Amino acid sequence: MALITKAIKGTKDVLPKEVHKNQYIEATALDIAEKFGYKEIRTPVFEHTELFQRGVGDTTDVVQKEMYTFDDKGGRSITLRPEGTAGAVRSYLENGLCNETLPQKVCYITSCYRYEKPQAGRLREFHQFGVECFGTQSPLADAEIIALAKSIFDTLEVKDLSLEINSIGCPKCRAEYHKALKEYFSARKEELCPTCQDRLERNPMRILDCKSPICSEIAKGAPVVIDYLCDECKEHFEMVKKYLDVQNIEYKVNPHIVRGLDYYTKTVFEFVSNSIGAQGTVCGGGRYDGLVDALGGQKTPSLGFAMGLERLMLLMEAQNCPFPEASKPDLFIVALGDKATLKAVELCKDMRAEGFTALMDLNQRSVRAQMKYADKLDARYNIVIGDNEVNEGTAKLKDMTTGEETEIALDTFVSGFYNISLSSQLADLEINGEEFDFGSLFNVGGQE
Prior knowledge:
Blueprint: H1 19-35, E1 39-40, E2 46-48, H2 49-57, H3 61-66, E3 69-71, E4 77-80, H4 85-94, E5 104-113, E6 125-134, H5 139-155, E7 161-167, H6 171-186, H7 194-202, H8 213-219, H9 231-246, E8 252-253, E9 265-273, E10 281-287, H10 291-294, E11 302-308, H11 309-318, E12 331-335, H12 338-353, E13 358-360, H13 367-377, E14 381-385, H14 387-392, E15 394-399, E16 405-409, H15 413-432
Parallel strand pairs: 1-5, 7-8, 12-13, 12-14
Antiparallel strand pairs: 2-4, 3-4, 5-6, 6-11, 7-9, 9-10, 10-11, 14-15, 15-16
Helix pairs in contact: 1-5, 2-4, 5-9
């Protein structure tokens, strides 16, 4: 029994008392993405294995070591998505978004799966917020998605992030770079791990991204791709930097960034933090001009990024970034007796219909037990209803913050509650000397 009541290694539960933090981050990211013109897309959690082999790259650690792959009952090789881009491209092609006005801008919040050694900020089931922009080769788009990511971090009040950018060129200039890498690594081939010895012939750039300490040390002295850029890639990279400069977005060029997936071309970038240890890359992305046609579509210049939400949460908590408080029930109704319970059910229905959160004790315990339960739920107001209150048509509404009680009519309960709670908000604001947004007066509890 112990086995089935313990979460699988590398997975994590998000409990009700914490989930509001996740919801806040996700809602912020989606809201900002929409301001940049990105609309949400949702794709399946699993795809044909070949999609990731062709899209992510069969020389990457992700494909070679980390994917959750299995044969289904029809004998097809299926893989749980290790990242979001390949599935988004497949959907873009299958559903004809390629035939609509370009560029097409999509965003997503998605779960991903990789078999890695679990550690802080790295899980086997993790979540990403990502954006993809299909159908533009302009460096304006590169700068825009970087600005989008930065806007999310700024809104969440994340501090001390370093933006690192690089260009890894196009197939034309990368061919020359591959020759230089082969020459460099061939001299130390016997020291490389078996995986990188295989990569040396197939895709030597992947050696630069190897997690082996020995390979990483050897790679430090390797040629850098930025020295091999063709004129077009150089010009593209210079324009990206100019568009970042005009937006006052600080960055540093890191010629060692290659990113971990094969589909990248030209611009690549990472937002890096020193606040969460080894897993410091919170967001990474770039341009992938050859991916759409590699998956069967027409050549379509495209780009995107993904940010790890667990890492972002870890970073925000390490920096004590502000989170909104978890929502509290507006009202808890203590009901005593069958007649009062029927009335409580009716009041809960009316309150919820007007946008309030109204709760009652489903176990119908004693008044004392119900009051203790209401305290644990931290309800803003409570009301006790018995047979006398139902017969007289009035009861006392108690403000659990101030202890103040106000008599309220049961037949006009919702409007009475609205007026009392609004008066309490205005009084609090007057005491605290805060400026009140009077526009909110017309959207409290769904009433106008």
